[in-house]
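new request in #modeling-help
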Amino acid sequence: MIPNLKTKPLPTWLTVPNHPVKSKRRASMQFLSRNQHHLRHLLQRLAQPAPVQPSSWPLSPQINLLRLGLVLLLIASVHSFVWLWGLALLLGLQLLLLPPRQLRYFIRRWLLSCCIAVIIVLPSYWLAGPATVVFFGVKTSLMLANAQYFRLTTTFQDVLAGLKAWHCPNVLIMTLAIAMIYLRMLGQHLLLTTEALDLRLVAPTRHPYRLIGALFGNLYLKSYAYALELYAAMEARGFNGHYAKPVGTASHWRDYLSLSPVLILMGLLLFGGH
Amino acid sequence: MALLTLNTVSYDYPTTHGLVDLTLTVDAGEFICLMGPNGSGKSTLLRLLSGLTTASHGTYQLAGHAINAAYLADAVKRQQLHQQVGMVFQNTDVQLFNPTVAEEVAFGPQQLGLPAAAVTQRVTDCLALTHSTELRDRVPYQLSGGEKKRVALASVLALNPDILLLDEPLNGLTIAAQQDMLVLLQQLQRAGKTIIMASHNFQQVQSVGQRFLIFNADHQIEADVTQAELATDTTLQAQLMTL
């Protein structure tokens, strides 16, 4: 129960209903909304969808990463539609395990990336003919599908764990980790700030550039403070500039089982002739 | 007549649900507490009510106007909506961007084109109401978490919105400051403001909320009860104590 505190009476202006006033000046809010839209889009791209791999079949991060690398290498190396069909089937089987919502998300993102890739591949039409365009189009889309599936089913932390397990240089891992965390944090902060600003911009502002300056000045101060706090927290937890190999990344029989189809295809490609 | 009406509103994030089939009517002058577990949709509902996002499905009406993408695309209408609805964010850090606290509070009234004397009056009043007068010349960036909350509330109050949306406003405040804020909110409600507040602290809000909307983990309203109904429902009270 709240004690009966001595309260100040509300000022009169706060007790009368608010009658929204229409600004006489031209409303020019497009700049803010347009940039909010861009920021949301960027954050959506940076956002990591929740991993959807069933817990009964988890793969260790390093094998997952190796698997992706091998599949991409295979797709890049083969010169036959039959091989591509086989690799597409392999991916199709994995896609069957995705929940419908994730599958729809996968298809949407994949089609979008394919459209962009096709535009890049198309100019070779004049150089090498339609057959080459179709072949490379299929190859590219299959590579993108595998990459998209990896992105959808692997957390960013797992990618880092995979890189650590493969003894990637610490500086690369640290740069990737901090860049990703920072980009998201700053993007999120800037988006929320512009939203808060939008809520209080009840009329067109006379000095939009002063506002933008204040926003970015604020963002700089916050990011500086955040960096110091982050580093202090890392040091407090014993960070000395070296990333230790993550615990629990030992390979399991199911890792090798999931890797085996790719290894068999690789063996066939190398030694079987085609 | 209902001030706010939500009719089978759903909101979807790219990979998850935010709100599912929410139907709700709010009358002017109500004090509503939103309660529920983390990620149950309380903040999403507040964002939707403030016009920061629009519903994926269903309709949202405020004082007879359908608040949808088309409405919000009109800058003049959106500005009018923001004069009526004020929001204090959960992370008030993002809400403060001016060089001093006084300028922060004056930002809204200046936007409204009020005369300088009226702006100064509003700043003085709002800082006094939120017990932040001594912070007047401080830099918002250097304030503590609780002080930022108070300044954020002052900056929103300066616009005199009819509807106040508060996302966890008591977090980071001392017990005394929490009580001060709740007393102020009660005063505002008695003055005719509609207050919708998300909170986890049932013990703090049980005496001030008139109506409690309890969300479940499926992003739906599990219970919509008045203070009197809640007082007799010991099971629900026990559930809310554990949030």
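bot summary: The radius of gyration of chain A is 26 Å.
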